Amino acid sequence: MKKFTLLLFCLVLLFSCSKKHEDHKTEKPKPVLIKIGYYPTFHLPAETILNFNEKYLIFYSPVSYNPPPPPPPLKENGEKWSIEEKKEHLKYLDEMPELKPFKINLSQNDIERIQRISDSFKSEDFNDKDLKPAMDGMSTNIIILYSDGKLVQINPMNDPDEKQRVLYGEILDLLFEKNTNKNNSAILRKIKGYH
């Protein structure tokens, strides 16, 4: 009887382990990393990386900051540039501030906000083949890495579908909420303006 009980116990254990393994196989892959590039026509580009496992979000520029120099001094009379030219140059610098890269830690609630959106993506949300490039606006590029190793790149250019727009908009909202730098606030407002 002891052998029968032991055998029955082993079979039950084996069956339950097999069942858990099957359940794990049918589980839908989850995003583990999302990278979004925001490339506005008339402003500096920016990119974000969201890591679901380590719960952080990075905001940075993929290009170096290289503002134009002030206009050269006038040749006549050896005068410096005019007050109007100086004001115009300072206004330009205010419009094109230097992005200060930063990393923010995210709460589980923040992660779940993004997961709800990314989990709703269907295969048609990954299609970007029939798009025609626009001359201006904001081009976007979305890369999603899933837990099963699958990597998806979506390049909707200037015409993201509604779910793509909601995804990158929600990530921008997180950046707005947690940013503390005035330059970055100006850049985020510009990017959001293209939304």
Q: Helix- and strand-based class?
A: alpha+beta
Total number of strands: 6
How far apart, in Å, are the first and last alpha carbons? 72 Å
Q: Say what oligomer this is.
A: single chain
What is the string of SSEs from the N terminus onward? HEEEHEHEEHH
Using only CA atoms, what is the Rg? 25 Å
Unreliable stretches: none
Number of helices: 5
What would the principal axes of the Cα set say about the shape? Answer: elongated
Helical fraction equals 40-55%
Measured by DSSP, the beta-strand proportion falls in 15-25%
Largest sheet: 6 strands, antiparallel
Overall pLDDT? 80
Strands of the widest sheet, in order across it, are: 4-3-2-1-5-6
Detailed description of the structure:
The chain is α+β, with helices and mostly antiparallel strands and 195 residues long. It is elongated, with a radius of gyration of 25 Å. α3 (108-119) runs antiparallel to α4. It has helices at 2-26, 83-95, 108-119, 162-178, 182-194, and strands spanning 31-40, 46-51, 56-60, 102-105, 138-146, 151-157. The chain has a six-stranded antiparallel sheet with strand order 4-3-2-1-5-6, covered by helices on one side. β5 and β6 form a beta hairpin. It has five helices and six strands. The termini are far apart. Helices cover 41% and strands 21% of the residues.
